Amino acid sequence: xxxxxxxxxxxxxxxxxxxxxxxxxxxxxxxxxxxxxxxxxxxxxxxxxxxxxxxxxxxxxxxxxxxxxxxxxxxxxxxxxxxxxxxxxxxxxxxxxxxxxxxxxxxxxxxxxxxxxxxxxxxxxxxxxxxxxxxxxxxxxxxxxxxxxxxxxxxxxxxxxxxxxxxxxxxxxxxxxxxxxxxxxxxxxxxxxxxxxxxxxxxxxxxxxxxxxxxxxxxxxxxxxxxxxxxxxxxxxxxxxxxxxxxxxxxxxxxxxxxxxxxxxxxxxxxxxxxxxxxxxxxxxxxxxxxxxxxxxxxxxxxxxxxxxxxxxxxxxxxxxxxxxxxxxxxxxxxxxxxxxxxxxxxxxxxxxxxxxxxxxxxxxxxxxxxxxxxxxxxxxxxxxxxxxxxxxxxxxxxxxxxxxxxxxxxxxxxxxxxxxxxxxxxxxxxxxxxxxxxxxxxxxxxxxxxxxxxxxxxxxxxxxxxxxxxxxxxxxxxxxxxxxx
Length: 486
Ligand code: ADP
Hints:
The chain is α/β, with parallel strands linked by helices. It has helices at residues 49-68, 71-87, 89-100, 104-124, 163-175, 188-201, 216-225, 238-249, 273-285, 305-316, 337-352, 403-411, 426-435, 468-471, and strands spanning 15-17, 20-22, 29-33, 40-45, 131-133, 141-148, 151-155, 178-182, 208-210, 229-235, 254-258, 263-267, 295-301, 356-359, 374-377, 394-400, 418-422, 440-443, 462-463, 476-483. The protein contains 14 helices and 20 strands.
């Protein structure tokens, strides 16, 4: 991998603690595997609780100076970090595609998208306004100030190895917090490369710490049970999110949770079908379907069902599976064996319950972790794939007759991250957008991700918002100061 990089020094194989590349206490190493070949591409530390503890100590020590720094000074450092990320986007994209398996174009796109959060929050950090509240007493004045929460533990997933980090680290650092990052086991290299660039940007030692490992639980325990850590920001499964939230209860830590979704994609009979097909292709097959806002349940009005399915089948034919570093490839492998087995299980279950395979439907002839882009039609409501995140390149279709019926079906899930619908009726567009129980809704649009808008879920999909002017508020405390004797 180092030979493929313009700057091999971006490949870091130790923890970043207090500004120093540090070996873990244990000599045990954790292999990083390229999912498209199954080969080991690097070995990183197998950190344990004491390594996390050392990183928290470093972050805690760095907090007073970092939080006292003027926001404009922090912004200058963060913008330098952002510039370095963008300058190194090709190398960072290569590292990302290698360890994660997404096509190189998507990988570079993620790096640049990730950098946009650093830039956005560098600016927002200057606008963390307080308030002056009219006092009920003549001799008092009431002032509200916002202060950084303190040391933040960041726990991030493998599906966006770069952007899920910057979207948490950006607002944390801009607000004046220091962080300990624990990236996912599958994708530590992108996190360590971001650490290298943070150092080069001049972000002071201890402000941004990275601890990598093959076993997340001891690190998660160390972060959640340490009273010096004041907040956990997590993106990942609902199961682990609940566990971390319960652990945080012990010391009443703040939590931001971006958890699983079960996004619906509704095509009404008045929709522009070509636009709906293009929207579905984009949101379903990005990252081979491995995103928390991937369309998971596709409801098409009975009147346009056959036509939509036919157009979709044609569009599916344009996908190319293969080596993620080949620029012609649009579909990489799934992340690991369990992911492939899950997709296979969900497809078999749907077919056993009466669904028909319109395209794909089995592991890809390329072998390894590749699965065929798949369309299933007439998927019955009891199929397991309606109730759990597929996280793979599978489109399940079902038909519906009325707006009320489809809204009820869509809302019938414990999740509430994103939903999408296509309709040209302005009244319906407002109505349905308001009735869908999710933190985000795409109306005639499936591309929601941008640093300027609040990303997050309701119900079991999470707590808090990332990006936008709202995102930074998750990293500050509100303090009320009462001045008397005036
Ligand atoms: P996914 O299904 O995306 O792999 P996970 O929730 O398992 O979702 O993983 C998301 C992140 O949570 C990863 O960084 C993973 O290492 C971490 N994680 C998993 N289990 C724990 C745990 N018990 N404590 C802390 N972090 C964990």
